[in-house]
Design brief:
Elements lengths: L3 E5 L4 H13 L2 E8 L6 H16 L1 H4 L2 E8 L1 H6 L25 H16 L3 E3 L15 H15 L4 E3 L7 H23 L11 E2 L2 E2 L5 H15 L4
Parallel strand pairs: 1-2, 1-4, 2-3, 4-5
Antiparallel strand pairs: 6-7
Helix pairs in contact: 1-7, 2-7, 7-8
Length: 234
């Protein structure tokens, strides 16, 4: 039975929900994030606030929450020409993918997370990728996750489990999952402290949290929140 986990934790809505899931499921949980010179690097500050608030507001989870890891991936920003790493407008490319797609990002994240998990003796890697609500990213698909799990397990001769709690649910159900895990306190924490906006906007406050309100990430989060308020619970 799996007892330990490493959560790929950006400090956004999805990864915070995944962290709550891991804390409710496993005995020891660590977190990892990556600085790839993303335009929304404010998320790296927001995530530390979220971790502190989880420890403060959920004492039943605080003892399970272990070390946090931050890796410098400047090289990813250097080789990427996307709207997440360059001051360019958000648009769809001729390939059919949005220009927010950072090629190789999740593949690299999972590879390095596996190396840390191997060293730290952590059995499960939890990531918030989603095929239902995703923006067309091929590295968020279930087939990619299964392939990565096999490749990493073989390549490190260590059986890893890549867990994707959000894979088959939409953003409204992600809000509902958070409510089921931590009640109104977790919903309020996500609204007030997590960061999703691609432009790194922490000035404009909306019912669903902070953000520019117009980038693809903000629009997705806002629509999900509206459906969460009006729809059925999980």
């Amino acid at each position: 039975m799996h007892k330990t986990a490493l959560v790929l934790f950006s400090g956004g809505q999805d990864s915070t929900t995944c962290l709550a899931h891991a804390l409710k499921t496993y005995e020891r949980v660590e977190t990892i994030a990556f600085d790839y010179r993303q335009r929304h690097r404010v998320e790296l500050e927001a995530r530390l606030v979220v971790l502190d608030e989880i420890r403060r507001q959920f004492p039943q989870w605080a003892s399970k929450l272990g070390q946090d890891h931050l890796l410098d991936l400047a090289v990813l920003g250097e080789v990427s020409d996307t709207s997440l790493t360059r001051e360019t407008a958000f648009k769809m490319e001729t390939s059919g993918l949005p220009n927010t797609f950072v090629p190789g990002r999740n593949l690299l994240f999972l590879t390095l997370a596996a190396a840390v998990a191997y060293r730290r003796g952590l059995q499960v890697m939890v990531t918030g990728v989603c095929e239902t609500d995703f923006s067309g990213y091929p590295d968020c698909r279930d087939d990619t996750m299964k392939a990565m799990q096999l490749a990493l397990s073989l390549g490190m001769d260590h059986r890893f489990l890549i867990e994707t709690p959000l894979m088959w649910i939409d953003k409204a159900d992600t809000w509902r999952m958070a409510e089921a895990l931590g009640g109104k306190a977790l919903i309020d924490l996500i609204i007030e402290h997590t960061h999703t906006c691609y432009l790194g906007d922490r000035q404009h406050r909306h019912a669903w949290g902070y953000g520019c309100g117009t980038c693809p990430a903000c629009e997705l989060r806002a629509r999900g929140y509206e459906r969460f308020l009006s729809g059925p619970t999980l």
